[in-house]
TrEMBL record:
Domain of life: Bacteria
Protein known as: Uncharacterized protein
Protein species of origin: Actinoplanes auranticolor
Lineage: Bacteria, Bacillati, Actinomycetota, Actinomycetes, Micromonosporales
Length: 93
């Protein structure tokens, strides 16, 4: 939030995009940054991505695009496995 200069009360739009949840500032957004500076993901998205309380998430700030991307550990495992499949095969040779 700090990198994007988003503070408490900022309205945001939270959408599902592939294996990520994308958050953008939007004056007409249905969600807000909490008074404590936290982002609460909507229940529907938590269910869609199977996010439970205390699950770890990777939250990336893309300052040049003024947005956040949120990834579950399952999504990261898939991305890393695909990215490094060839590398791991080479290392085994």
């Amino acid at each position: 939030m700090r990198a994007l200069r988003w503070s408490a009360g900022r309205k945001v739009r939270i959408t599902a995009v592939g294996d990520a949840i994308v958050v953008r500032a939007d004056p007409d957004g249905a969600d807000i940054i909490t008074g404590q500076g936290f982002l609460r993901l909507p229940t529907a998205l938590r269910h869609r991505y199977r996010i439970r309380n205390r699950d770890r998430l990777l939250v990336c700030a893309f300052v040049d695009r003024a947005c956040l991307a949120v990834y579950t550990m399952a999504a990261l495992e898939e991305v890393l496995a695909a990215r490094h499949a060839g590398l791991l095969d080479q290392a085994a040779s």
